[in-house]
Amino acid sequence: MQVKDIxxxxxxxxxxxxxxxxxxxxxxxxxxxxxxxxIVSSGGKRLRPLLVIMTAKALxxxxxxxxxxxxxxxxxxxxxxxxxxxxxxxxxxxxxxxxNEKWGNAPSVLVGDFLYxxxxxxxxxxxxxxxxxxxxxxxxxxxxxxxLQLVNCKNPxxxxxxxxxxxxxxxxxxxxxxxxxxxxxxEANAEQEQALKEYGHHLGMAFQLVDDVLxxxxxxxxxxxxxxxxxAEGKATLPLIHAMREGTDEHAKLIRKAIRKGGLEDIDAxxxxxxxxxxxxxxxxxxxxxxxxxxxxxxxxxxxDAKEALHSLARIAIERNT
Length: 322
Description:
Blueprint: H1 3-9, H2 11-24, H3 30-40, H4 47-58, H5 64-87, E1 92-93, E2 96-97, H6 99-103, H7 105-126, H8 129-152, H9 160-185, H10 190-217, H11 220-223, H12 229-232, H13 238-246, H14 249-261, H15 267-276, H16 279-297, H17 305-319
Antiparallel strand pairs: 1-2
Helix pairs in contact: 1-17, 2-5, 3-7, 4-5, 4-9, 4-17, 5-7, 5-9, 8-9, 9-10, 10-16, 10-17, 13-14, 13-16, 16-17
């Protein structure tokens, strides 16, 4: 199943979510609407709400409640993007200037706060305490993951284990929350609930690992962001951690200096190092393992088009170039 086939399966639900998103962006403050609409409309794949809808469909419980949960997830994700771009001083996302580049840091942070608040208003309307528990816990874990990444920034001694902790919090957690909360909302049995929770976790881990590979071998125009952004920010991602461990002393010395310093002065040399040391392939290999684990989790679901779509999404996560 290809991407277009996956989206075709939930075309009406996705349209309903889009309408709900537009409706819930309303604010008595015009700038709030303007910035929120800009970031929500900027061309993202809406993968996390897609996971909510597809999980509900796989459990034969799709409908207004699942669509409302998908909107909550999209608002939580968009809020983190607004905050992340300020923290990372990013100037491009999805091929467009970031909100902080267009309007400044303060409005971006405050509109991110608005979206967090709106998401919790919608969450209350779901009238499901377990879903609220999952999502409120997830937002804390995501924030901790971002702080942990900030602490590790420009630290060349970041270990592989520490790196995994960061991506588990800042990326995989919201994927996990998407499928887990949808399973709970749709009254999945205990076995299915745990399987879907783990599916989301492994998919999120694979997704971030591939993102970190693309930072060194992607194309800026295709990705909609700058190649080398992670290195410019001094982030010790897995390709760099592996290259420092497996490369020569000179390789490690150059990478350590680049991480401490930040910027792109040594980007060409480092891109060559991570390729020759097999660091990109090593990172892809771990991503593939997470995809396999994600797909195995789906054995607990009945055979449906939605299950096949979830299976295909895991495969697409490591085949993508954006």
